[in-house]
């Protein structure tokens, strides 16, 4: 269930209310005339089931409310209302399958900001994964996968491609193009620093690492895992379920591959660096391909519904 807070210019309020009262998936409509001060207008509140979210938001934007007023969306975790139940029954489809495009665009757009926090988190994750590679410790690899923020730009890239948002695509590509090289450089420097302190050495990289050497040995399964992880990640994102998304983050080797490449570069092991770079590219391509395909299927299925 979504809660809408609409600030409507007085001349548009009747059309807004009419739209919401006609929509079978909308309920609990409240109008507070003249309540808004900035921007000035009437305050209209309503609950809308997720299945009807995109059509209602598109219709409101078609009225120009987002330009002359304001539209805010909040997720409602619990709604004890017979009226809300009737609205959910009347709307086509299921809430778990519904895609609220404006919500997804906003959510993924926030993840593509080339902020200091994003760069720091990606660099920290890569450093942790680099240490995990040298120690052959999967627990550090898993921790690095969870810390890494790279799925945000990848998801935004998929949404931008499907929704034909060139600006979003450029921002996502910029975040990835700047973030990963910077993280690799930081990891190389960190590896040199740890080596100088005697905490790690080249022998650790060249020794047998049965638990983590898969990171730089890509094969057909690398694509398969990345592809299905991309599907699961996009489904968890569109359904606003965080649990499956965490599983996705620890199933693909994007950050560990970048870390393995960095450590191999630091110690001058080109064949391992090349294998890790290939693993990284395979996973990135698989996730984006799967994400775009998933969104296209969801859009097609929802239009059919």
From TrEMBL:
Pfam families: DUF389. The chain crosses the membrane at residues 114-135, 141-162, 174-200, 220-238, 245-268, 280-302. Coiled coil: none annotated. The keyword Cell inner membrane does not apply. Keywords: Membrane, Transmembrane, Transmembrane helix. It comes from the Bacteria. PANTHER family: AT15442P-RELATED (PTHR20992:SF9). This is DUF389 domain-containing protein. It comes from Dactylosporangium salmoneum.
